[in-house]
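FIELD: query
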Amino acid sequence: MTFKRTLVTAALPYANGPVHIGHLAGCYLPSDIYVRYLRSSGHDVKFICGSDEHGVPITIKAKKENTTPQAIVDKYHKIMGDAFKEFGISFDIYSRTSSKTHHQTASDFFKTLYDKGAFTEQTTEQYYDEEAKQFLADRYIVGTCPKCSNDNAYGDQCEKCGTSLSPTELINPRSTLSGSKPVLKETKNWFLPLDKLSPKIKNYIEQHKDWKPNVYGQCKSWLDSGDGLQPRAMTRDLDWGVPVPVQGAEGKVLYVWFDAPIGYISATKDLIPNDWQKYWKDKETRLIHFIGKDNIVFHCIIFPAMLMEHGDFILSDNVPANEFLNLEGDKISTSRNWAVWLHEYLQDFKDKQDALRYTLCSNAPETKDNDFTWKDFQARNNNELLAIFGNFINRTLVLTHKYYEGKVPNATNYTKEDLLVLEELAKAPEKISKAIEQFRFREAVGELMNVARLGNKYLGDTEPWKLIKTNEERVKTIMNVALQISCNLAILCEPFLPFTSQKLFSLLNVQPLKWLSATQTSNMVAGHTINKDELLFSKVEDADIQIQLDKLKKSKMENEANKPAQPIKAATTFDDFSKMDIRTATILEAELVPKTDKLLKLLLDTGVDKRTVVSGIAQYYKPQDIIGQNVCLLANLEPRKIKGIESQGMILMAENANGELSFVAPVKDEIKNGSSVK
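FIELD: result
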């Protein structure tokens, strides 16, 4: 289907902290590249975002800082908005969900569904913190996971084993507000019956098998799970948010995940109050949501279900979610300050927005988690942007001024070599376009850099600095071709490197050109005067990188020192402990389990037998390094199949404050395999 217009949304960042590079790589940079490309290609496109300003975490932060929720969201709305703008994220509007427009829009949306009978009213027992005097959102209840025994599982999910949970499934639940054990208390809320809507949602998802495999796969996993979709509460017992607009709902607000996606609609209203409906209700509009993988279920299942029940709105045509970006081999964590904050980067690396944009795009976690390292950032800046792209532009401009006083020379007789280069140059826009339109941004930026490589190779092969002494006419043609490549690079790099594009157009003394112009190879007219050369990129020094590594090292040390030990679990009996048969053993063989990143298959000598155990320690230990390692083994754990391998026991590991694992093992050599641990 051909669309008249495109509405692009980027996930609303939560206004309780600044933006980090994981957010950029997952959502904001790819959406900006896509929108910039559409604009340059002449499409009617609107780019929508804003701060998500409701929910329990805001109220918690306000209490901790002894201020109001509004003060918190005002602070971070400005920090995030300013950082996005300085980084070149080109939203048409950066709105907020605390606005009057949003409150009215979200309230009206809920009321429409309520009047249509879309909700079910249910009185349920929910956890209540008697010390904090409030009901607890799922994420503010932690306890022991019933599946893997992780002591810090959340009330909605165990992040260690990935199991979806409800708070009442947790063993020994505790409130993160007060640390006390919550009590169950009755409360009434309004639920969206996703179980009854499941056929509609399945049909919608089945129509989008062309979505990225990580997105489609996660949707299918939710829909095809044994329990299927379950009703989900769309209201919460809280005093910060959009009040529920029905009688009997005093003291309740809309669930933040009901409220937040409606923020896209209210932001569009603020942007174009007279035309917003054609971007949300006209079937000739294509709606695309850019998000991170943690938001897939909300944008692909819950929000579409809300829109279906409302009945007036179009559904998203694509949801190109990225996976997670790690930092220096470890998961980005705001609570541990293990992150690269955008506003700090912009201070530390002034005028190097495009260096970070290029690195994050080149290393984007498009279908699997990826890793950002400061050394890689330095290498991509110095060895690619500076040494390839910048070097080609610098040589071209310097030689043009040296030989022709900055005027574009006239091309006379093209050689076969020239024509092949110009032919390759003319093909570049289509290659880049195809990759962008299929949301393959890593491939697209790679094709962009290939244009710069083409230019560098062309100058290296033709060596105009040598020919100028013997064949000046030939040099004129060479420099004309090099300037055509330079101009087309300025066009093609704009979606990825907008600051570089702007600077390069200025150096070439050319008004910015649109995408279609890059299919031509004659944009630089003979006789046109270019400006004096300036370096497009500057080197990132070792000292700059060491400052960032030291900053991360400091965060890790502070976190290690400040993080309290986990509380002792609830009392157990000696008889229960006696049922566990813990033995010493030695690792004889170790290998990585295929198609996994965390699992090792171990062969153990227990002194009684030799048995296979699958252990999730691959990110901490290499197989070849642990042969001969003494361990402690829970030997009578019921066997279970993991990735098709029967695991006969569990290795005991100690976990530090950063979640890193190390072996629990005997220290005396005379302790033989099979010795009991008591």
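FIELD: remark
The two ends are 69 Å apart (CA to CA).
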